[in-house]
Design goal:
Largest sheet: 6 strands, mixed
Number of helices: 19
Radius of gyration: 40 Å
Bound molecules: guanosine-5'-diphosphate, magnesium ion
Length: 634
């Protein structure tokens, strides 16, 4: 079931017409709801839903008052698909418009529509003037390409076009995670007569179902979902991206603190010290100073903390740097979460960025090893990075040269990869070789295809030479690594090693026409006895091309059917005869001359001499003068 739930947010200066616009789009007066909120759990502060031309029902958030904006944007950071930045045409960009723009940039929300409202109040020239001013403001930022929608929330001019545009822009944003653990930062916690505890929020990930056991963090208060409401209706389940009200059993409203998160139990971590990648906006007026006391906003939580700059003495406007935040109370977070930093007093956005993880302790400042490590974490999932590095097999020592992590950090990552079936362990000289499973599997299938193709093309070769295979695979490993991989692969029975060759486990049998030719050659050589023909004669006799005959001869040699003696092939049976008769003669007479050998084997000097030299090499015979004697006797 592909559930896709969209949430649209609003931003903009006070009185520019956000509430009026939502009423024009949805028919719901979010201001009036405030007064009616006591009526039942369906009444959700500042939330409405609209029907788009395609028929989709989409949630829309009104942000009552500026202070709630940051929280709302952060809470919805994973749920906010599109933001309508409302600018009144008669006033243009105001300070709050600017700050909202900055926050959108900090949170990397770039799917926005600039809604130029109150066009009923201005003439065409003025409208154009304001539009130019806004474009100038966005120039060079990630929001530069954002579309404009001129409307009047009051007269409804441009509203149908805006609805169509919202419809158009929603399918292009990425899908939401309805799988995975539940995570919903709570924006309201209250108690209703006859219901008990009710919490509301935007479901960031996962699916919430009636009866489900969940936890409220920090503090791990276990609760059970009694009922769920979405868009004012009781539903059995709510999905990521939806605005959700949950009626809970197991906790009093007073027990749940503001900024808490409802999650699948134990799915997320909670901590006081976080590693951060911090950014100060170019438009900001002040630097972020070491040990500055700041308001740290994450999800719906706002916690006071001190910034601990690890890379800079201070972060100037437009600069960024790695840092930690030492919080006065813990928050729930995961790597990749966005946050916003605001000054303690006066309340001003001073920066923001991305959480890299929860840290065990305060880190030393200006330590290159630590910074290198944070840079890696900033790039993404460290497990993934190790896996990518392991596309070729490596020892722990080799791997640790490529990563800034020491072995104590690397080993748990390898253990994790192994536990999740993403790692293979091969061996080299008794040491482990780590290889990402996916990469090893791809490598194996490529290798086997190559071997099989080769064997099909050259059936007589019975496998491919080790070096030729390495070259064909385009491997840059050193000789030793290649041999280790071959030996281990052979042991694992991925393929077979036979001497210098690598062959498939199930080598294809030889085709009948080749078998026929082999039989023909064998017969021809057997009959020729001690006067074997040369290969060209064999080729002619058995209808084998000159190019192929060597492969046939080598095959027969490998099969121990033929023996090569100084480039001349003899049938193995003939060689056995030669050996026996020679040995017998020498035992009887003690020595033999070339002339006597020719007699014994019924052959010519041309064959007799190389054969004798062969047996000398085999340590059956040795020379004494112009005679041969048994090697052992000498
Ligand atoms: P918010 O603070 O951004 O939510 O602004 P409101 O929606 O409360 O609107 C502020 C005032 O502007 C109200 O008096 C609205 O009636 C008025 N207003 C909103 N949109 C329009 C519009 O398109 N044209 C005119 N003339 N007035 C508008
Ligand atoms: Mg309003």
């Amino acid at each position: 079931m592909a559930h896709r739930n969209y949430l649209v947010g609003t931003a903009g200066h006070i009185d520019h017409g956000k509430t009026e616009l939502i009423r024009a789009l949805s028919g719901i007066d979010t201001d009036r709801l405030k007064e009616e909120k006591q009526r039942g759990i369906s009444i959700e502060l500042g939330f409405a839903h609209m029907i788009l031309p395609s028929g989709r029902e989409v949630g829309i958030v009104d942000v009552p008052g500026h202070e709630r904006f940051v929280r709302q944007m952060l809470a919805g950071a994973s749920g906010m698909d599109l933001v309508l930045l409302v600018i009144a045409a008669d006033e243009g960009i105001k300070p709050q418009t600017r700050e909202h723009l900055e926050i959108l940039k900090l949170l990397e929300i770039s799917n926005i529509i600039i809604v130029l409202n109150k066009i009923d109040l201005v003439d065409q020239d003025w409208k154009n003037f304001i539009a130019t001013e806004i474009r100038g403001e966005l120039e060079g930022t990630t929001l530069a390409g954002s579309p404009f929608s001129p409307v009047s929330a009051l007269t409804k001019q441009g509203i149908p076009e805006l609805l169509a545009r919202i419809d158009d822009m929603l399918p292009i944003v990425e899908g939401m995670k309805t799988g995975g653990p539940v995570r919903m930062p709570l924006d309201r916690i209250f108690s209703l007569k006859g219901f008990g505890t009710v919490v509301t929020g935007t479901l960031g990930s996962g699916t919430v179902r009636t009866g489900q056991e969940l936890a409220i963090e920090p503090g791990r208060v276990m609760v059970r979902v009694r009922s769920i409401q979405v868009h004012g209706k009781i539903v059995p389940a709510a999905f990521a991206g939806q605005r959700v009200a949950i009626n809970l059993a197991g906790a009093e409203a007073a027990e749940i603190s503001k900024g808490a998160v409802i999650v699948s139990p134990a799915a997320f971590q909670v901590g006081n010290i976080l590693d951060l990648a911090v950014q100060n906006l170019p438009e900001a007026e002040k630097a972020i100073r070491q040990r500055q006391r700041l308001r740290f906003h994450i999800g719906t939580a706002e916690v006071i903390g001190r910034i601990h700059l690890l890379e800079n003495t201070e972060i100037l406007p437009g600069q960024s740097g790695y840092a930690q935040i030492l919080l006065e109370s813990p928050v729930l977070t995961a790597a990749g979460d966005r946050f916003v930093l605001r000054s303690y007093s006066p309340l001003q956005t001073v920066g923001g960025g991305k959480v890299l993880g929860i840290a065990a302790a305060k880190k030393k400042r200006f330590k290159e090893e630590l910074l290198v490590q944070m840079r890696w974490q900033d790039r993404g999932d460290t497990l993934k990075l190790v896996e990518i590095e392991l596309t070729a097999p490596q020892t722990l020592a080799e791997l640790s040269q490529k990563f800034p992590f020491d072995k104590s950090l690397l080993s748990p990552l390898l253990a994790k990869l192994l536990a999740s079936d993403r790692l293979e362990i091969w061996r080299e000289d008794g040491a482990d070789l780590y290889w990402a499973k996916g990469a090893a599997e791809r490598w194996r299938s490529e290798l086997l295809t190559l071997i099989e193709d080769y064997q099909r093309e050259f059936p007589l070769r019975q496998g491919i030479g080790r070096e030729e295979l390495k070259e064909k695979m385009g491997l840059l490993w050193n000789h030793h690594r290649w041999q280790s991989i071959l030996e281990f692969g052979n042991m694992q029975k991925y393929f077979k090693l036979a001497g210098g060759k690598v062959r498939a486990n199930n080598s294809p049998g030889l085709p009948p026409e080749i078998l026929e030719k082999l039989d023909c050659l064998k017969k021809y050589w057997d009959e020729a006895g001690f006067r074997p023909p040369d290969l060209e004669a064999g080729a002619r006799k058995c209808a084998i091309s000159a190019a192929e005959i060597t492969a046939y001869a080598q095959y027969l040699g490998e099969q121990n059917e033929w023996v090569s003696v100084s480039g001349v092939y003899f049938a193995a049976r003939i060689m056995a005869d030669a050996r026996n008769s020679l040995e017998q003669h020498l035992q009887e007479y003690g020595e033999i001359s070339v002339a006597e050998v020719r007699e014994l084997w019924q052959t010519s000097r041309r064959y007799a001499v190389p054969l004798l030299e062969y047996f000398d090499q085999q340590h059956l015979t040795r020379r004494r003068g112009d005679k041969r004697i048994l090697y052992k006797k000498a």
